[in-house]
Amino acid sequence: MSGERHPARAKLAYALDFPTLAEAQQGAGRVADSVGVLKVGLELFVSEGPRVIELGRELGCCVFLDLKLHDIPETVERAVAAACAHGVRYLTLHAAGGPKMLAAAAARASRENTGLDLLAITVLTSLDAADLEAVGVSGDPSHQALRLARLANRHGIPGMVCSTAEVATLRAALGPDAILVTPGIRPTAHPGGDDQKRTGTPEGAIRAGSSLLVVGRPIRDAADPGAAARAISDEIQRASAVA
Ligand code: C5P
Hints:
Distance between the termini: 29 Å
CATH topology: TIM Barrel
Largest sheet: 8 strands, parallel, barrel
Bound molecules: cytidine-5'-monophosphate
Strand order of the largest sheet: 1-2-3-4-5-6-7-8
Number of domains: 1
Low-confidence stretches: none
CATH architecture: Alpha-Beta Barrel
Radius of gyration: 17 Å
Mean pLDDT: 95
């Protein structure tokens, strides 16, 4: 870290998709000037446990715990309480868990009152129409994303995770207060989507109304991760000025 914090860093979350705490610490340290949110996902949390959450405090970043909870209402509610006790800023759960699960989670987060915002996963950015069809959901992924976002919103969930292709529709449907989070971001400097199927650029995501962009491999796998993160925050700042 150089110490100078990028003005757009609150809108950029870095996916800490690393196998060990030491690698995550090193990876996060390289980009923390340009990234305000550290996303701890399944690989890191399963290998290292809750101590990874400390990284946020060490580097002056919020922690986004991406556990994508999907279980019976009581189990999810209790996991929400545990995440609140760790002081994380965001926690994901699947909107497809249904109305009772969503309502129980929202009620528990608000009762704990620790500043945690729940984010409902609508349709994973790795899925296209054919993948949805294979699990019994016909039609365009954007229709399913909107349906699930509305369901989560009705049951008190403040944020939704969707692709850049759906964010404008969700913004129009849910209004300015919804926290809309977009993974599947592919800057022009990182062509190809890896396993992501519904991708977009940082500029496109901001212009369409995204609140927070999630970026992993385009930063992690860049020759210079610090420069890659800074370039994305620069693009976010430019796009925010005209959005
Ligand atoms: O490497 P990449 O930029 O594709 O990273 C995307 C990150 O966002 C991964 O950590 C993945 O788990 C997460 N994510 C996603 N799609 C969602 C929700 C989270 O890709 N719908």
